[in-house]
Amino acid sequence: VNLAARLESASEAGRIHVSNETRVALENEFAFEKRGQIDIKGIGKTQSWYLNAQLEKKP
To answer: In this structure, is residue 59 part of a structural domain?
Structure first.
Protein backbone atom coordinates (compact mmCIF):
# COMPACT_ATOMS: atom_id res chain seq x y z
CA VAL A 1 0.00 0.00 0.00
CA ASN A 2 2.89 2.37 0.73
CA LEU A 3 4.31 1.94 -2.79
CA ALA A 4 0.90 2.56 -4.37
CA ALA A 5 0.43 5.72 -2.31
CA ARG A 6 3.87 7.02 -3.30
CA LEU A 7 3.25 6.27 -6.99
CA GLU A 8 -0.09 8.08 -6.83
CA SER A 9 1.41 11.16 -5.18
CA ALA A 10 4.23 11.30 -7.76
CA SER A 11 1.93 10.87 -10.77
CA GLU A 12 0.52 13.41 -13.20
CA ALA A 13 -3.26 13.83 -13.10
CA GLY A 14 -5.09 11.43 -15.39
CA ARG A 15 -2.11 9.10 -15.87
CA ILE A 16 -1.64 5.51 -14.70
CA HIS A 17 1.66 5.32 -12.81
CA VAL A 18 3.03 1.82 -12.14
CA SER A 19 6.06 0.14 -10.63
CA ASN A 20 8.69 -1.67 -12.68
CA GLU A 21 7.37 -4.99 -11.38
CA THR A 22 3.91 -4.18 -12.75
CA ARG A 23 5.41 -3.16 -16.11
CA VAL A 24 7.29 -6.46 -16.36
CA ALA A 25 4.13 -8.43 -15.58
CA LEU A 26 2.09 -6.56 -18.22
CA GLU A 27 4.69 -5.70 -20.88
CA ASN A 28 3.19 -8.08 -23.46
CA GLU A 29 -0.25 -6.51 -23.12
CA PHE A 30 0.36 -2.76 -22.69
CA ALA A 31 2.66 0.01 -23.94
CA PHE A 32 4.58 1.93 -21.27
CA GLU A 33 6.46 5.24 -21.07
CA LYS A 34 9.43 5.52 -18.74
CA ARG A 35 8.63 7.95 -15.92
CA GLY A 36 11.99 7.80 -14.17
CA GLN A 37 13.18 6.86 -10.73
CA ILE A 38 11.32 7.93 -7.63
CA ASP A 39 12.46 7.69 -4.04
CA ILE A 40 10.12 5.50 -1.98
CA LYS A 41 10.46 5.94 1.78
CA GLY A 42 11.59 2.64 3.30
CA ILE A 43 12.36 1.12 -0.13
CA GLY A 44 14.75 3.54 -1.83
CA LYS A 45 14.93 4.59 -5.47
CA THR A 46 12.79 2.56 -7.84
CA GLN A 47 12.04 2.83 -11.56
CA SER A 48 8.48 3.78 -12.44
CA TRP A 49 6.42 3.89 -15.63
CA TYR A 50 3.26 5.37 -17.12
CA LEU A 51 0.87 2.91 -18.73
CA ASN A 52 -0.08 4.37 -22.13
CA ALA A 53 -2.23 1.93 -24.11
CA GLN A 54 -3.28 -1.66 -24.54
CA LEU A 55 -1.40 -3.41 -27.33
CA GLU A 56 -3.30 -4.97 -30.21
CA LYS A 57 -3.59 -8.72 -29.91
CA LYS A 58 -1.90 -10.63 -32.71
CA PRO A 59 -4.13 -13.13 -34.51
So the answer is: no
